[in-house]
Amino acid sequence: MNTFLEFLGEISWWMWILIALVLVAIRDVFFQRRHTISHNFPIVGHFRYMLEKIGPELRQYLVANNREELPFNRIERSWIYASAKSQNNYEGFGTDRDIYAHQHIFINNAMMPYKIAENHPNTIDPTFLPCAKVMGLYNNRRKPYRPASVINVSAMSFGSLSARAVESLNKGVKMADAYHNTGEGGLSPYHSHGGDVIFHFGTGYFGIRGEDGTFSMEKLIDLVNKNPFVRAIEIKLSQGAKPGKGGVLPAAKITQEISDIRHVPLGKDVLSPPNHSAFSNVPELMILIEQIAEKTGLPVGIKAAIGKMEQWEELADIMVKTGKGPDFITVDGGEGGTGAAPPSFADHVSLPWVFGFSDLYKVFKNRNLTERIVFIGSGKLGFPAKAAMAFAMGADCLNVAREAMMSIGCIQAQICHTNRCPSGVATQSKWLQSGLDPTLKSVRLAQYFKTFRKEFIEITHASGYEHPCQFKMNDVAVNVDDQNLTKELDRTYMYNKTVVPFTSVQDLKDCKYLGGFKPN
């Protein structure tokens, strides 16, 4: 035995490396059958898989330019990070964005900006920007609600997000006078740190489900009575990432605490059904809205990604006939969000926000219903210029999800569905969460919201208005880049250039001033 140990001790370090590589090569060629590349190219093939695994990070930090990444490019992320940290979020030497690109936004500024008086609220607080409409006022709900901020936290569930992330968001919205949408995962203790809350439920009815998994009005009433910071109820019909498909929470992310809050078993993926059991058509949805509003006294709204319009038209027609209906509608864009979704859904099902919202808004505008509804936009709108566009189109409030996540540390790793989020935002791993400090991150969420509102107000004033609700459709233009809309320059810019006197090129050549004045 001693002789064997002495023999091992005489082997140099590089020989150990060589032995390890030989063992890996033997394993690759003779024992594993899962990976053809590793079999055909032992040892070397592993580098291919390593590079493939870290490829997104390499492209994000070393390859992609400032404007080409999706879903959020480096400039957008940097603006959020700097705003959240109260750092310099300006850029110098002009824009590096292609301002002639398709869908680029232009905001028409006024010749004379709006001037605020010495005693104006925005003189006192440059970030004060409440919603111009009141939820539930038209329908005479017992507890109407005017959001104190036009930008708020969108529906993201505890379970999808970590406990510390949810706590950071809730504490942050309290500092920023915004609201916090719970997402469909139920109301958790981490939503209870003082921020206004909109309780959101989907087809799983988590937190308000009976023993058979169906909707329980009694549990909803009990939840609202025990939690007076719940300001409104939102019924999710669909979401941008996967309309027509239920939510997914992988088993790896389900802890005992999540199991208790949602009333779901451990060790199994939680798959919400695509359809509601509490209603099956538009009239039944309307009945449920009115029942919830009557029982709780709160404004009740619906959230959906937009596709076909027939049922929306049916909803609007019922609203005209009955004088009742949802107090607010949240329009989610097909751009997707934090939820796990098959690429076929995330890439192709439901309309992008601008198309979906415009189609929906026209349905209600044509029936003179828009004043009764608070329209909430949700879909990569957490930037002042995009907000101006949204308000010009008819939005009254904005919900942001991924932008809020980035303000508290998300690095766009795009592995929200794996429970391996490196920033601790979208994981249930205690170790990964440990680096996320709610005391610090809540301040950053609040500062991002305040910076957003301040810049949005400044853009509004530059356009000659006091509040963004005053934006009109013709205050914002976008590049349409459509050959059918091509126009000559005189019709595009509405003038003709002055005629330049010209005789011939020869006269130009013979001119004594060609190349500069030459004295005789």
UniProtKB/TrEMBL annotation:
Residues 147-465 form the Glutamate synthase domain. The keyword Hydrolase does not apply. GO terms for molecular function: glutamate synthase activity. Keywords: Membrane, Transmembrane, Transmembrane helix. One of its GO terms (biological process) is glutamate biosynthetic process. Pfam families: Glu_synthase (PF01645). The keyword Transmembrane applies. The chain crosses the membrane at residues 12-30. InterPro entries: Aldolase_TIM, GltB, Glu_synthdom. PANTHER family: ARCHAEAL-TYPE GLUTAMATE SYNTHASE [NADPH] (PTHR43819:SF1). Belongs to the glutamate synthase family. This is FMN-binding glutamate synthase family protein. It comes from Bizionia argentinensis JUB59.
